[in-house]
Amino acid sequence: MTLPNIRYGIDDRPPLAALLLFALQWLAVTAVSAIIMGKVVAALHFDEPAAQFLYMQKLLFITAMSLIVQIAIGHRLPLVVGPAVILLVGIISSGQQDINTIYTSIMAGGIFLSLLSGLGLFHHVAKLFTPRVVATILVLIALTITPTILKLFLDASSPQAVPANLLFGLALLLAMLGADRLLKGVWRSTLLVWALVGGSIASMLLLPASSIQQQTDLPLFSSVLKNCTTNLSWDPGLILSFFICFIALAINDLGSIESIGKLLQPAGMPHRVSRGMFITGLSNVAAGFLGVIGLVNFSLTAGIIASNGNASRFSFLPAALVLLLVAFMPPVVAFAWNVPSVVVAVMLLHIMSMQLAAGLMVAFGTPGFSFQDALIISIPAMASVLVSYLPPEVTASFPQILIPVASNGFVVGTLLVLLLEHVLMRQKK
Length: 429
What we know:
Elements lengths: L15 H30 L3 H25 L7 E3 L1 H9 L5 H20 L3 H5 L4 H14 L1 H8 L8 H21 L2 H5 L1 H16 L29 H29 L4 H22 L4 E3 L3 H8 L7 H12 L2 H8 L3 H24 L6 H18 L3 H4 L7 H4 L2 H16 L5
Antiparallel strand pairs: 1-2
Helix pairs in contact: 1-2, 1-14, 2-12, 2-14, 2-15, 3-11, 4-11, 4-12, 6-16, 6-17, 6-20, 7-16, 8-10, 8-16, 10-16, 11-12, 17-20
């Protein structure tokens, strides 16, 4: 049933003052996800600040454009769009692959998703993703991102500063957990925003290594449509690795769209789902062309709508337009870039903890959950952790075509759980 406290429906237009207030809220939530993911991925690819800022600009641009298209002609639902964590796993696992090869693979994955949804074939693939497989995938995403979180915690000016980073991170995480219990309504739904702002200020005051880096030579406006990934570079192993990541992304996207559908019960949900997933695929094609991480619809929107009673998709448009404007303003991007690494680490740790909790809820919520069910989840999870922490010199010794697959803990875990679920430990009907 639709929640009784919904003040503005999907196609309602709130008064201007309320519209701008709601838009500010959506802007904060969308920008935080882009800042966190953009900072992590750009630092993996580039050492020069100018290249990192341009990466963030392009990510903000494609996020804003995807949000506008989804609201206008895609699923036409109030859903936040942001960078996909599962693609972060794929990018990290790509190791020393050329950047053109990585984003060509994301383009290919976007085409793959668009075809699956556009031709109505996704439901055939979705049959493989039983509750145990979905639970395992949620767990795998959380576990395989841990090396990156650890690296962010250890990103200090000297080894002596690492203990302070770890203590600060633990204190911030505990503060977030406490706030999650105490805060209500929209304050709780936007906890990441306040944690990012408050954590950054506290880090700059308490940790000397977190001081702001001034950038004075940046133009006020600059184009983001430059240095795009136009040089196609194909690697079959890496494309296969990203295809598996995109299947998981599709499951996430489907769940996000359907969660809002169950909350608001709009007409024509099957068409909204297919259009929304098709646009998600095209957005990832565009992201790959621009050379940035791909996008997905976020399920956190439902909690915010439940707290403030606003389900109007039109309240997203001012947020998207501001995000689009910011994408062309390097000084604003540079200011956002100063979020300390330890704060980004805590944000990722908090998000991945929720992801892991969701996986456990799916697993334990399965009727008749048994020891065999637990094994089907635990064996791929352990294998993915081992693969995720393999030294680079070990993965480099694999056959070249297998490196993108065999060195990706998420892909190895996903293939293993599918093998266990549907072949080796298949349950009799």
